[in-house]
Design a protein that fits this description.
Elements (H helix, E strand, L loop, with lengths): L1 H19 L4 H21 L21 H32 L23
Length: about 120
Amino acid sequence: MELLVASAIGVMTTAGIYLVLRLRTFPVILGISLLTYAVNVFLFSSGRLTIGAPPVLQDGATLYADPLPQALVLTAIVISFGMTAVVVMIGLGAFLGSDDDHIDDQPEPDASQPADAEGQP
């Protein structure tokens, strides 16, 4: 089970880094989300991968899951959802403002300003 979870974390991290390196807004947002999911699964797995164990120590329970990583992951999910919504709105505003979703666009020179001898405004 540990090999499966570690492989899933590796695949999500690899795909997230690939998407973050793209030059469009939407794949970058998806890449950041995938990296967030990979970190969440990593944090969750740091609390021991146990099946059918209670999350808190009870009378007679010899095996239990650590509740701290579960609380951290739950908090991280809420924060990442809010941040994803903010980044999507910023990307949408940038797309609607320029009709282009490239990340590395250079600003166009303003035609009302005179250019110098090298063509720079």
